[in-house]
Amino acid sequence: MQEVGLIMDDIKVLIVDDSALMRSLIGKIVDAAPGLVVADKAMNGRFALQKLERVQPDIIVLDLEMPEMNGIEFLRERKKLKIDIPVIVLSSIAKEGARVTMDCLELGASDFVTKPSGSESANLATVAAQLVEFLQAYGKQYQMKKGSTTASKPASSFAQNYTHTATASRTPSSAAVSSTVSSGSVFGSAPATGAKPAQMRQPGKLEIIAIGISTGGPNALREVFAELDPKLPQPIVVVQHMPPGFTYEFANSLNKICPLEVKEAQEGDLVKPGRILIAQGGKHLVVEKKPLGVIAHISDAPPQSGHRPSADVLFASVADQFQNRALGIIMTGMGKDGAASLTRLYQEGSRTIGQDEASAIVYGMPRVAFEMGGVMEQVSLSNMASVINKYGREFA
Question: pLDDT tens digits for 362-396?
């Protein structure tokens, strides 16, 4: 189906990069994408600041290594001047300098994409697609914030095809946890739109919280995690779509602002109260209940729902191991990863939450889960932490 939304003015993109070749390449990517237009280009942060008032961009693509004023310096000045235009960091330094990239997020950048270079040039199409997705999503939200929209049917560049499948019966709990990743039993036939699947049992004691999130996630998680109850009785496991090499520093950056311990999941980690585990980039995360505790497992199994890590894989393992004793949360993100297995969690009797449309950068994953009937309650980003704290206390 096509979502009903808003016709947007073309999203104006300011490209900031000291490389003429890269400015040209990014410009071609922008020009080729429906709904995007190059507003201007600048060779460093100082020139970019000078252009802002005249150009009035909806989003900025920012290199990190530039003369006179580099990306970090630009973001500091942007914060000082209270400029709220979203920024997507695009730089080769991000590949080696994950910590620098996380510093950019802490300074207010919305997201990042790694530049293709050397042997990775074959991935240009993938990088281009992700960049366009980010520019459309964050640029659209900024336009809506400015009020430069008119109510109508959606522009074709923002329409998404939400064809999806629901879950089949759960994998027997006696099966190995790793089978959750590779089995095809996670998916089955979808109910009609709006149909509510039956729950096998009533929700029970809450023992674990699982979150699936994608586009818009880095800053959304920063907002939620900063407000979590330091005495939250349940552990949290998270799939945030992010490239390999970045989730370690991402977890560290969240750990600075969260009252709970936040770390990148490692094989054999204890899933315990007071701890949040973030799935590694490029690896699936699953959980297994053992007599002495719950253990995290890391898997190289093939991508599922187009992703590794996949929220569907994490939610399916939680459904296997906890049935009706979990809280599943699906948040902002493009596509449908996590929707089918969140619905399965609901069918098992677990409680489920979806981020609402108004607060999601991209209402894709939560929309599909809601349409499948797998969402019990829709919650805004600003209320998400308080709802998690409330569920955690009341159902412990």
Answer: 999 999 999 999 999 999 999 999 999 999 999 99
Q: How much is the average pLDDT of 267-295?
A: 97
**Cβ pair 29, 131 in contact under 8 A:** yes
Which pLDDT tens digit goes with each residue over 21-80? 999 999 999 999 999 999 999 999 999 999 999 999 999 999 999 999 999 999 999 999
Structure tokens at 342: 């969140």
Choosing from 63, 103, 111, 337, which is the catalytic residue? 337
Catalytic, 214? Answer yes
CATH of 179-394, one of 2.102.10.10, 2.30.30.30, 3.40.50.180, 3.40.50.1970: 3.40.50.180
CATH 3.40.50.2300 domain position(s) in the chain: 6-151
Catalytic entry in 91, 92, 110, 214 = 214
pLDDT over 50 (residue 234) = yes
Catalytic residue at 337?
A: yes
- 262 contacts: CB under 8 Å, gap ≥ 6: 225, 251, 252, 254, 255, 275, 276, 278
Phi, psi (5° rounding) for residue 328? -100, 135
* 8 Å CB contact between 379 and 366: no
Q: What band does 95 get if pLDDT is binned at 50, 70 and 90?
A: low
Q: How far is 74 from 70, CA to CA, in rounded Å?
A: 6
- Fold exhibited by the domain 6-151: Rossmann fold (3.40.50)
Looking at the chain, which residues constitute the CATH 3.40.50.180 domain(s)? 179-394
320: annotated active-site residue: no
What are the DSSP calls for 260-324, one per residue? Answer: SEEEE--TT-EE-TTEEEEPPTTSEEEEEEETTEEEEEEE-PPPBTTBSS-HHHHHHHHHHHHTT
More reliable by pLDDT, 132 or 123: 132
Note the pLDDT of residue 152.
34
Q: 3-state DSSP call for residue 156?
A: coil
Q: How many CB atoms lie within 10 A of CB 161?
A: 10
Rounded CA-CA distance 215/360 in Å is: 9
Catalytic option among 241, 284, 297, 307: 241
pTM of the model: 0.86
Please state, as a whole number, how many other Cβ atoms lie within 10 Å of the Cβ of residue 294.
18
